[in-house]
Amino acid sequence: MSPVPAAQVIRRLRELGMSLDEVRIVMEAPDHGLRGRYMAAAGLSWWAGLALAPTLGTRLLDVSAPLTFAACALAAAGARFTPGPAPPLKGV
Length: 92
What we know:
The structure is a single chain. By secondary structure, the chain is mainly alpha-helical. The chain has one domain (3-80). It is built from four helices and no strands. It has helices at 3-15, 20-27, 32-63, 65-80.
């Protein structure tokens, strides 16, 4: 894959909310079929979170509002302390 189309693919994947690690896995896939499966798995995980969060958040809010906000704060703090930046992609 030449650098320009590779950069376009990376930009589109980042616009979809994929992490750099997920982008690296997709870009280093040996064939297009496997690349498509990786992209589908990333999309499924993204949409599963969007579908589950309101349902679980509403149920937790029914139990206790302070508990809901504490759980959200812990989730945000956990997301903040993820591993550092990924190493550069091969061939880009």
